[in-house]
Amino acid sequence: MSAAADRPIVSVNDLRFSYLRGGAVVSALRGVSLDVQPGEAVGLVGESGSGKSTLARVLLGLAHPRLSRIEAGRVVIDGQDVTGFGPQQWRTLRGHPLAMMFQDPLTYLNPVMTVGRQIAESVRLHDGGVDAAARVRELLGLVRLPESVATSYAHELSGGMRQRALLAIALGCRPRLLVADEPTTALDVTTQAEIMALLADLRQRLGMAMLLISHDLGLVASACTRIYVMYAGRTIEWGSTDGVFKVAAHPYTAGLLQSARVVRDAAGRFPTIGGDVPNLSQPIEGCPFRPRCAFAFAPCVQMPEPVAVPGDREHAVRCWHFEERVRSGAEVTRAG
Amino acid sequence: MPADAKPLLELRNVSKTFRSAAGETVHAVRAASLLVDRGETVALVGESGSGKSTLGRIALGLIAPDFGDVFLEGRSFASLSSREFRDARTAMQPIFQDATASLNPRRTVRQLLAQALRRHAADVVDVRAAAILDSVGMRPGLDYLDRLPHELSGGQRQRLAIARALAVEPALIVADEPLSGADVSIRGQVLNLLLDIQETRGNAYLMITHDISIARAFADRVAVMLRGEIVESGPVGEVLVRPQHDYTRRLLAAVPELDLPTAANA
Q1: The whole model's pTM is what?
Q2: Which among A16, A80, B80, B243 is least surrounded, fewest beta carbons within 10 Å?
Q3: Which ipTM was obtained for this model?
Q4: What pLDDT is attached to residue A93?
Q5: For position A336, what pLDDT does the model report?
Q6: Could you give all domains of chain B from N- to C-terminal order, each with its CATH number?
Q7: From CA B51, how far away is CA B153, in angstroms rounded?
Q8: Residue B118: is its pLDDT beyond 70?
Q9: Buried b / exposed e across B216-249, counting CB within 10 Å, b at 16+?
Q10: Which of A230, A208, A183 lies closest to A44 in space, CA to CA?
Q11: Contact A216 B256 (CB under 8 A)
Q12: B250, A265: Cβ pair inside 8 Å?
């Protein structure tokens, strides 16, 4: 691999992206910045409508060329600026440094083609000359599927096996970064644990980085060393998983962590975040979390620049309330 | 609790077999027994294909078991006249996983609730419907009556589905994965709503879920299903703290733990 080992595989800088849906312009990404370094496991956490899956599609060049548009910002993949790429240019790049794994493998597996042929197709796309059959066997072994699966069709496999088959196709392109969008959400918990263990093992053996996109904080915490939290199309807090979990500088992050635990409080009630996520086809002024935030005050009508969390160079947050707490010298624990 | 000690719902040794498209026999439920008392919450936990949803449908009287019997307040479904069976089914209301799919998209909130309120006089339907919407947190309820499902948010549609189940004042609500698909921040709202409803109305819940952490926090008792059989059941504090069955242990071990600082230092 010729690429420099020390530059990010993916670097996204203040990305703004919109698409057309039923005549309305949806501003799905409103300021996303994110880096993934070679070999690291990064989590991207958010609820539905946060833009996390849209970001994945943009990174893979899967956004519709006519119905969507990058409005501002930059996407750099392995040192190459891909911001203005058209479908032709993406084709040469796709599968090379990046590959993707989706929530619902059945949608992405061809129902009338054997699994083996689909893996072989992916192999040929990347390594033209190799003995595809041997590589297919090797890939099936890597994802711990029996060789007999090569002649199976998607409908003959269980959910967990389909996800492994999809992973084998992704690995066929020898990606340096696997973008996994809710890869285990549709699976049972015991199968989920198997797939996550497999991903951890493969990452180590292949030196592959992973961007794990999930609404499940527990899952991300167990698999990733760094996380980004997204809300309404923006990255609002990022840092080491430990740092973000310990400090939870943004009130939304703090609320998400509380809600994720499914533990009742002293009054016997479950923690919640009041209100609803904003409608992304409407303009949002200032901090998008403001209408739901218990700490909103006058400055929140403008979106703040990132504020560093004291004592942690990697950890930053976009929140006026936190900025004020830091400035007033309050002890920085959790949003509150 | 009334003087007669009959459980609200009892499934006694029920079995159900389906034939798959390929002609194979699928034993969806095998000799399963389950009790739900008045006002209590029972979680039925299992993975996909374990038969938990089939058992839920048998409890609701939507599917008849091949063997075994279902008793509502001590009376066997099999012994009921068709009119009595209809009443029995009304006493138990379902809430399904996908609220959007269970709501007819062309009916207004008023029409959707009016179906459930048809026993009431026409002139009080609006008042009753608005009161029920109020009670599920859609306030003021009157403002929602003319809306269509797509004009509501996902959380509001789930509340509407709950409102519709409540409209007939059921003694038991069978909730089949009511939270899967709901966002983390919405999940707490729905669970709190279910708790509030139980506090004021004293209804029982049979909560069907794959999520053992929800079962642990929400239910009084839990039954664990594996391949059509209930392999372990009892109070949550026993089954999920000292699991006896290997499968329950595996389920517990597979849940990623979220080790967080306590709220105390917030």
Answers
A1: 0.85
A2: A80
A3: 0.81
A4: 73
A5: 47
A6: 1-91+172-254 (3.40.50.300), 105-169 (no CATH)
A7: 31
A8: yes
A9: bbbbbbbbbbbebbbbbbeebeebbeebeeebbe
A10: A230
A11: yes
A12: no
Cross-chain Cβ contact B185/A259 below 8 Å:
yes
* Contacts of B248 by beta carbon, 8 Å cutoff, 6+ apart: B224, B231, B232, B239, B240
Contact call for residues A284 and A301 (beta carbons, < 8 A): no
Integer-rounded Cα Rg, in Å, for chain B is 19
Within B126-253, strands assigned E span 172-176, 204-209, 221-226, 229-235
Cβ atoms < 10 Å from Cβ of A101: 26
Give the pLDDT of residue B41. 97
Tokens 């003694």 identify what position?
B171
pLDDT under 50: residue ranges of chain A: 1-3, 336
Beta-sheet pairing, A316-317 with A234-240: antiparallel
Identify all chain A residues contacting B153, using CB atoms and an 8 Å cutoff. 276
What domains are defined for chain A?
10-229 (3.40.50.300), 249-327 (no CATH)
Asked if the model's pLDDT at residue B226 lies above 50, the reply is yes
A201-227 residues labelled b (16+ CB within 10 A) or e (exposed): ebbeeeebbbbbbbbbbbbbbbbbebb
